[in-house]
Amino acid sequence: MAEKMELNEVEVWDGNYAAAQALRQAQVDVVAAYPITPSTPIVENYGAFVANGYIDGEFVMVESEHAAMSGCVGAAAAGGRVATATSSQGFMLMIEVLYQASGMRLPIILNVVNRAIASPLNVRGDHGDMYAGRDSGWIQLDAFNAQEAYDLNLCAFKIGEDINVRLPVMVHQDGFLTSHTAQNVYPLSDDEAYAFIGDYKPVDEMLDFTRAVTYGAQTEEDWHYEHKAKQHRALMDSYTVIDRVFAEFKEKTGREYKRLESYLMEDAEVAIVALGSTVETALLAAKQLRESEGLKAGVVAPRVFRPFPFNEIRDALANVKAVAVLDRSCPMGAMGALFNEVSAAMYASPHRPLITNFIYGLGGRDFSLEDAKAIFREQKGHADVGYITTPLQQFSGLRGPKLGFYEMKRSK
Amino acid sequence: MALTSIKNLKEFSTANERFEGAHLLCPGCAHSMIVRELMNATDDNLVIASATGCLEVCTAVYPYTSWDTSWIHIGFENAATAAAGAEAMYKARKRKGTLKDPDAPVKFVAFGGDGATYDIGFQWLSGMIERGHDVTYICLDNENYANTGGQRSSATPVGAHTSTAQAGRVSYGKKQKKKDIVAIMAAHGAPYVAQLAPNKWKIMAKGFQKALETEGPCFINTVSACTTEWKFNPKDTINITDLATDSLMFPIYEIIDGRQLNILYRPKNVIPVEEYLAAQGRYKHLFKPENRHVIDMIQKEVNERWEYLQRREEAGV
Amino acid sequence: MKGVLATDRRGIRELGAEELVGWDEVTQGVILESFEVPMEENVAHIRPEERPYSDFSSYTATVASWRVIKPVYNRDICIDCQNCWVWCPDTSIISRDKQMLGIDYDHCKGCGVCVEVCPTNPKSLLMFSEAEEPEAALAKWPEKKKKEKK
Ligand SMILES: Cc1ncc(C[n+]2csc(CCOP(=O)(O)OP(=O)(O)O)c2C)c(N)n1
Ligand code: SF4
Ligand code: SF4
Ligand code: SF4
Ligand SMILES: [Mg+2]
Predict the structure, then answer these.
(1) If you average pLDDT over residues A281-289, what whole number do you get?
(2) Is the pLDDT of residue C149 over 70?
(3) Does the beta-carbon distance from C48 to B16 stay under 8 Å?
(4) Is C70's pLDDT higher than 70?
(5) How far is B230 from chain A (nearest CA, A)?
(6) Where are the alpha helices (DSSP H) in A294-368?
């Protein structure tokens, strides 16, 4: 039996340690992993828990991230709880297997400590890896700070393993900004945390020898499409379970999560839509602008990136006049992905605010309070004149001549 | 651990098959002979991982499976790790008491083609062996990427024609030597490593049983004659394999704990490699006068290799 | 031996003849289960003719149409050596209790390996055209061949 750990009511943990503690409390059966900055401490801390008898499961240090996810798939098909962590290049090496995991409906938990993708090589945070996972069939939860990294890991097991979901789940946090910043975290006790998640319930397990199950069959043109559609439907429908788990978590801890977080949006005239730790910067900017300039600014942030909160975006932005959507990943030849998805949601709405796109923070470039304020003020300008006066895509915090793409077309 | 009796073929034939017909492998394909023999060598439950390749695309095509055991395919390169992951889960669940039937005996097996083993999955296999998982890995070595139409692999022998190492007006086919996968796996210190062939059914069954019985990672390279890409009549699969083992193109031997090498089959009459080559379309071009030197070179290599294996066996190191 | 050479479940449909169901009816996670119900005993201890194969098992499909020539079995000469059993790539030699019983024509692809490895003289298995009736084939069976002098 694994040794229990006495935790204080408040601990000072960074995002990585918070995630590692959640994995320990979930008593994961198999962790197959490979180190990469900035997610390495999750794996190292897990290793320390193993070495000191706090975990009963198997800790398999493999020879690459591709093997890490492959081992996770084999282990999950064998009917137990499975988790791992990675970032950036490691994430890219895993991608082939991410699709295989979700196609087989295996509820693996992957902590992605977001980091930029080479070339050029960079260890700092942006959302390149998170975005690269967006078509992979995984549920994607986004933590903005260490507490959330802990909380969302606990929720992730409960969501992914739910009999009506059975999908793998990524828990994202920003490299360094969240992963390496020590903050106050309020943990549950080991018993409370485990009781919240519950025992793993095997489905189609390879170790039940009364049933012979084949995993990973070939499907050609007669069958592939139906299987993909069924999987898409499961991911689309998973929101009901996500909502239920978030509600149960609130009941237990008082901490409330929504698939789309909205801050100061009741009377907002302008808004920023963003992901990750940027949300906290944008919110602080909104608060200060409200006080100093009377600017009615609000912030909208997908807590759940997949399934995308399409309806909730429409509702949250129903009354704003101008919106800036921030993408921390270079879209390379297109508008930002988050911009496109927010725009699509608003296009299917009677109310269509003015929407612009900002690329920012690539490779860990600082996104300051002033940057956020400037974006809010610009939106206010658009709201006042009734059209977009700037290029539709701009670059915040970039040195050199101003870079921008596309203009708004006006009938007049 | 329950091994089936392999005292003679009559006894062996009482094994209850767990590999079903109406798979899509070519008529006469040796892959299924090898797979059947492995599965019939034990009564234990099996968890089998297969790499992408002929075996996988022909035995699990929705909505059909030919496997009566737990079976998983993830990708081309990671069958070893799929099996390792399942084995790790078995250990964890056994310790925690969450298995449905904790006493049910089980063996973990991975199958990969030579492409999956020698080439793309080499690192995954190496990692699995190094970490010491209790997995038996079996390479179905048909010396080419058969599933994708017969491209060269690092298991393709010198002189063979493949679609990406072509024989032509100025080329005699593949120029590079076959990778010595058995030596590489033995160098990992794996407790049991062998090269076996289905024509020698009893030696092969014994080797399979040894690998299944041995705790820890075991590796077996099996010669799998491919009627389609080697270009011979499907009825001749075993005849060709006889020529392979009796010409010593495929010596049959095992290596215990990375050290002790035992030769498991010594042909009474060693035949010239020329006979083996002449029986297959993939070597047809070698019989042009200007390629005579290639056949001589292959024969020389085979002689030297046989000499080396015998000396190693004698030396016992 | 009824129920061994031809069972209720074996080869009941051509590959590809299965019903193409919609997205809501395909299996979750593309899983295929080989048996209809949980097996109370280790499958390795149950004979194929007694197993509850599901429609997902290729046991229930046939590849007979792949064949242009077929092996015919002559019980009178057979010595039950089981060579044909061990080397048939298509699990199509039916042996029970150390006896060769016959050929599973639902799964045999007509490769001819069994004929090649049969050691009797004359052979106990020979290839005939697919259309040939077994009785007619047996009537044409060759005489014992003299060993060729080398
Ligand atoms: C990552 C990846 N690369 C390439 C392929 C294409 N591919 C599938 S099977 C195969 C060759 C298989 O060769 P081998 O492992 O020798 O097995 P065989 O078919 O010969 O039995 C290739 C190249 C793939 N499926 N996945
Ligand atoms: S191509 Fe070769 S290996 Fe593949 S199924 Fe045919 S005979 Fe077997
Ligand atoms: S012809 Fe081939 S498939 Fe048919 S029974 Fe003989 S060996 Fe098996
Ligand atoms: S190989 Fe020939 S003699 Fe041997 S069992 Fe088969 S049919 Fe009988
Ligand atoms: Mg091959």
Answers:
(1) 98
(2) no
(3) yes
(4) yes
(5) 26
(6) 310-316, 337-347
Give residue B96's pLDDT. 96
- A284 and A245 housed in the same domain: no
Query: Among residues A253, A284, A312, which one ends one of the domains?
Result: A253
- How confident is the model over A231-237, as a mean pLDDT? 98
Q: Pick the residue from chain C with its C-alpha nearest to A104.
A: C29
What is the structure's pLDDT at C145? 82
**Ligand having the closest approach to the CA of C106:** 3
The A393-395 sheet, strands edge to edge: A260-263, A297-302, A270-273, A322-327, A354-359, A393-395, A404-405
Question: Are the beta carbons of A166 and C43 separated by less than 8 Å?
Answer: no
For β-strands A82-86 and A30-33, DSSP reports them as parallel
Q: Which residues between 23 and 62 in chain C have a beta carbon less than 8 angstroms from any beta carbon of chain B?
A: 26-27, 30, 32, 34-35, 42-48, 51, 55-62
For residues C49 and C63, give the distance between their C-alpha atoms in angstroms, rounded to a whole number: 18
C-alpha B27/C-alpha B179 separation (Å) is 28
Does the pLDDT of residue C1 top 60, yes or no?
Answer: no
Q: Does the beta carbon of B54 lie under 8 angstroms from any beta carbon of chain A?
A: no
Smallest Cβ–Cβ distance between C58 and the set B15, B18, B66 belongs to B66
* d(CA B150, ligand 1 centre) in Å: 10
Whether this prediction's pTM lies above 0.90 is answered by yes
C32 has a chain A CB within 8 A of its CB: yes
Total residue count of chain B as it appears in this document: 317
Cβ contact C42–A209 (<8 Å): yes
Radius of gyration of chain B (CA): 19
Ligand 2: does its nearest atom lie under 6 Å from the Cβ of B222? no
**Does the structural domain B9-315 have CATH classification 2.60.120.200?**
no
Q: Is the model's pLDDT at A115 over the cut of 50?
A: yes
pLDDT value for A53: 96
Does residue A320 sit in the same domain as residue A266? yes
Q: Where in chain C is the domain with CATH 3.30.70.20?
A: 66-140
**Residue A133 sits in which domain range?**
11-253
What is d(CA B176, CA B154) in angstroms, rounded to the nearest whole number?
Answer: 8
Using the mean position of ligand 1's atoms as its centre, give its distance from the Cα of residue A247 in Å.
47
> What is the CATH classification number for the domain harbouring A94?
3.40.50.970
Report, at the CATH architecture level, how domain C66-140 is classified: 2-Layer Sandwich (3.30)
Residue A411 located in a structural domain: no
Q: What mean pLDDT, rounded, does chain A reach?
A: 97
Segment A174-184, tens digit of pLDDT: 999 999 999 99
Task: Report, as ranges of residue numbers, the positions in chain B whose pLDDT lies below 70.
Answer: 1
ipTM, interface predicted TM-score of the complex: 0.97
Please answer yes or no on whether C39 and A103 come within 8 Å at the CB atom: no
What are the chain B neighbours of A214 within 8 Å (beta carbons)? 60, 65, 67, 71-72
Contact C32 A217 (CB under 8 A): yes
The string over A189-220, giving b where at least 16 C-beta atoms fall within 10 Å of a residue's C-beta and e elsewhere, is ebeebbebbeebebbbbbbbbbbbbbbbbbbe
When pLDDT is averaged across residues A229-247 and rounded to a whole number, the result is: 98
CB interface of B with C, residues 114-173, below 8 Å: none
- Token digits of residue B198: 């289905």
Query: Which residue bears the tokens 């100061």?
Result: A264
Task: Give the per-residue pLDDT at A410.
Answer: 86
CA of C107 to the centre of ligand 3 (A): 8
Residues A105 and A237 in one domain: yes
For residue C150, the model assigns a pLDDT of 52
Q: What are phi and psi of B121, to 5 degrees?
A: -100, 10
Q: How confident is the model at residue C8 (pLDDT cuts 50, 70, 90)?
A: confident
Total structural domains in chain A? 2
